[in-house]
Structures
1.
Amino acid sequence: MACRVEVVTLAGNMIELNLEPQSTVADLRQAISLAGPGVPAECQRILRNSALEPLPDAEPIEERQYRLVVSLDAVCKDLETGDPEQRKKGVETLSRLGSKGGLPAISAVASRLQDVNHGVARAAIHALISLAEQGSREDVIAAIRKRMPECPPGIRQALIEVIGSVAQWGDTGLVDVLFQGLQDDEPFVWMAAWEVLAELAESGDNRPAVVQTVIARLAHDDGSVRAAAADALTWVAEAGDRQAVAALVQSSRDYLSFVRTVAVEAIMEMAQCGDPEAIEAVSERLTDDCPMVRGKAAKAMSRLSEDDDDRCIAALAACLGDESREVVKAAFEAIAERADRGEKHAMAVAAEYLKQRGWAVPFMMTGGSGIGCAHWRCESFSMACACHV
C-alpha cells in the first residue's frame, strides 16, 4: 500500500506525494523532481522537520512530512569540475530548476558563457533562454550585460540573439546591452544588435519609443555611443522622420569627427530629397576639418539636392580643389553621376575639370543636351585624380 508524504518548502508551499512502501530519500527526491513544479534532484536537500542536516539518499522514508530546501551547492561544484560533460550537465540542471534558483542560478549559468568548451557555452546560452522564458527575463538581461564584454565574438553574437528572442521593449537593461552590441568591434555582433533593435521598433507600437530612446543616446558622454546611436537611427526610424533628421543634424556638429562622419552618412540615408535643413547641415560639413567628413558631405549633398540644383553643383565644384584626394574623388563622382543624368551644369563642370588636366572629354553634345558616359566617369576620374594629386 502506497504511503502519503507531505513535503513543505521554505516558502510554505506543500507538495503531496504517494510513495511505494520501503521508499528511500532517493525515491522521494525523484518523486519531487517529477512533481510540478519540479525541483531537480541535484538541487534538493531533504530534512526532517526537527533537523538541520540533510538526509542521505539511503535513509528510509518513515515520517509523514519532510522539509525541502533548494540548494545549488552540488550543481555549482559540477560547474567547476574539469569534465566538460559534468559542467554541461550542471548547466542543464539549473535550466530545469528555472526561476526557483533565483539570481544565484542565473549567475552560475552565465559564468559558463566563457567556458573553454563550446558545448558547455552553448548549453549556457540555451539555459539563459529557458530561464528568461520562465519569468527571469530582466535578470537574464542583466547577467548578459555583465558577462558579454568578456565573451568571445561568436558567443557575443549569440547573446544578442538571445536578447532578441526573449526581451520586450521596456525591459530594464535592454537598451544598455543592445548598445554594447552596437559598439562591438566585430561586424556580425553589431549587425545582430541592429537587427534586434529594428525588430523591436517594428513590433507593435514600439517605434516612437525606440526612436526616442536612440535619439537620447546621441547626447551620451561617450562618443562611441553617440556614433552608434546615429547609425542605429537609420535602422529604427522611418525615412524622412523629422525628429530623427533634426537630431542627426545636431550630431553632424559633434566635436568628434567620427561622430560627425556617421551623422552625415545617416542624414544622407534618412532625409528626404530637397530637405532644406538636411542640405544646410551637410553643406556646412563640406568645409569640415576632417577629410572623411568632407567626403561624406559631398556624397550627401548630391544625394539630397534636387536635379539641376546649381547650388549643389557649385558646392561640389569647390570641393574639386580640396587638398584631400578622397574628397576630390567623392565630389567628382557625385558630379559625374549628375552628368550621367543629363544635368548640363554638372557636365560642364566635369568637362572643365578634366580639360584643365589635359584629358579629352568624351561627352556627346547634341542639340544643346548631353549624355555622360559611365565608363568615361570611372576611367577618367582615376586619371584626373592622379594628375591632381
2.
Amino acid sequence: MPSYKDVGEKIAVNVKIIPSRDILKEKLDKITLSRGSTIEDLLEIIYRDYVKHDKRDSSGSRYANIFRGYVLMKNSITIGVFDKDGFKPFEEADLQIEDGDEITIMFPPSGG
C-alpha cells in the first residue's frame, strides 16, 4: 500500500550535486516528488536511488555520510549543512519543496 506521499499531484525538482564524480550511480538532473514533500524526503530518494553505497564509516557498521562537509542550497540560499551524522538544517530554513525548486548539494569553495 503506498504511503500518503506516493499519491496525489507530482512536482519536479531540479537537483545538482557538485562534485558528483564517484558519488552518484547515474546522472541526476531532476527528481519527481509528491506535492508536500520536504528536503528530508528528497534526500531519502537521493541516498536510496542515486548514491553509490560503497563507503562505510570507521566501524564498518553503516555507510559513511558521503556528503560530510557539503552544504545544501535551495534556490541559491544555503539552508543546511551535512556533518558526520547527516543533514542538519538551519533553524529558520524552509524545508518544504515546491514545483521547480533548485536544490544544490555542494562542497563549499575554500578561500585563501
